[in-house]
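Summary for the steering committee. One of the milestones for this cycle was to obtain a three-dimensional model of the protein with biotin bound, which we needed before selecting residues for the alanine scan. The sequence and ligand used are listed below.
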Amino acid sequence: MSGQIIEFLRNSDDFISGEEISRLLGITRAGVWKRVKSLRQKGYLIEASPSKGYRLLYSPDILTENEIRAAVKGNIIGREVIFFESTTSTNDRAMEFGQKGYPEGVLVIADTQEKGKGRLGRTWFSPSGVNLYFSVLLRPTFSPKDAALLTLMAAVATVSGIKKNAGLDASIKWPNDILIRDKKVGGILTEMKSDMDRINFVVLGIGINVNLRLGSLHKNIRSIATSLKQETRKSINRTELLGQVLRELEYWYKALLRDRKEPLLDEWRAMSSTLGNKVSVRTKDRVISGIAEDIAKDGELIVRLPSGLIEKVYAGEVTIPKNQNAKFKTQN
Ligand code: BTN
């Protein structure tokens, strides 16, 4: 009910009387006042005037299901929103919903994750009140060999969303690290359930460090991570950023469903901080060094070895040595 009071106040440019709120919600005026006091305790600044009523002056960055619903306007992505104040991992929950037959487009989002998962079995630091952690359930009709395009799509949507919402130039380090000034600001974890020739469902999990203070990070990763607030020196509204990233996802997903793969790959190439550089890629069993030449349609990184031979790398961890003495732009 407090969420509805915030909605009324937010939709009104001026004061809204206690009497009107009490009528709309079917509660007493004392009940309205009680909820206003509890909203103030959560950080909302609400002016109260005995003659005019209530007016919202400031909203703290609190994720609420109502606000998320209002910000997510796509007709596929986010057509259903499942919000948790806290959950294990939004990816795990979305996988469960996928198994239970939930429809494509379901958005699972949490303010904090107890067991946030990163790539390669790592954990994803997921404190409450500062970042975005969300997963989208998809049921694409294309073949499993094209599934990697969905991860590329998530990276492109995240970078575009950050650009449009926070005005920052982020880039993609293969396969799907989101960087700003070479520091990690976000990551993507894709999980899939499929048969040999058919995707059952895919979960795209996205984590973005939004208002995280770097001081709260473990000292081992403080020097390699960043957040949007750290870069802009301003607090970013998480719900608005989420809405923007989801709009970008919707755009690119519809393009993929119409078989428009090349524009997506071109966008990925333009956002990549990997292509054109000397790289070392640590795979499960070896390290491959060479020039990162291109990305293949199946998401593999194409590396030209010093011998001139080409290697395609499916999974691994890229390092880009500083002070490159042989850097060139790929011909795409
Ligand atoms: C990476 O290692 O770079 C991938 C990080 C992915 C983190 C996100 S947060 C939302 C979703 N739920 C998870 O448990 N992981 C992903």
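Key point for the committee: Residues 8 and 152 are 39 Å apart (CA to CA).
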